[in-house]
Amino acid sequence: MAESNLQLVYGAGNVGLMGILADSVLSAGGSVVGVIPRFLGDKELAHRGITEIHEVETMHERKSLMMQRSDAFVALPGGIGTLEEFFEVWTWAQLGLIQKPIGLLNVENFFDSLLEFIATLVEQRFMKPVHRDLLVVATSPAELLEQLWKREIPVEGKWLRP
Fold it and tell me: Cα–Cα distance between 129 and 132 in angstroms, integer?
């Protein structure tokens, strides 16, 4: 991200993969923006060494600010919070509330089961193929970034570039 002059916008945590990613972007000279609810920051989960940190009151405010500040969304392997944020962003894109690329970094096939489930949703007509096609999936960060910026996004029946 730093080499591509892309700013990381994330949940401001100092633990797990996101803490490692933030440290990596910073050590490569990149910029990192974090958004964290006060109740999480107060538990000392906030990464205090990032470029910019915003403390908000609620999780809803956190997601809203992160969506406003981001040009694209990428889910890394993670838990229920990651999935909740991923599905909300994807739902907003499906509804046309955002027109930004969405990606899954499928490291070591982490998301294969989810992708199979999504294929089942389309097959059984619970999801339209155009909504499945909002997702960009790649196994390496470089490949994912390249595909995200080439992605065309459906807006009002037309496919547009971000």
Answer: 5
Query: Edge to edge, what strands does the sheet with 73-75 contain?
Result: 73-75, 102-105, 135-138
What pairs with residue 159 in β-bridges? 154
Pair of tokens at residue 145: 């970034």
| Cβ atoms of residues 10 and 22 within 8 Å | yes
> What does the alpha-carbon distance between residue 28 and residue 137 come to, in Å, rounded to a whole number?
25
Instruction: Write the CATH number for 80.
Output: 3.40.50.450
On whether residue 16 sits in a domain, the answer given is yes
Amino acid at 59: M
- For residue 156, which of 74, 99, 77, 87 has the smallest C-alpha distance? 99
pTM of the predicted model as reported, rounded to 2 decimal places: 0.86
* Interatomic CA distance for residues 16 and 153, integer angstroms: 31
Residue 159 maps to a domain: no
Contact 56, 62 (CB under 8 A): yes
- For β-strands 153-155 and 158-160, DSSP reports them as antiparallel
What is the tens place of the pLDDT at every residue in 67-91? 999 999 999 999 999 999 999 999 9
d(CA 76, CA 95): 23
- With contact defined as beta carbons under 8 Å apart, do 38 and 55 qualify? yes
How far apart CA 66 and CA 84 sit, in angstroms, is: 14
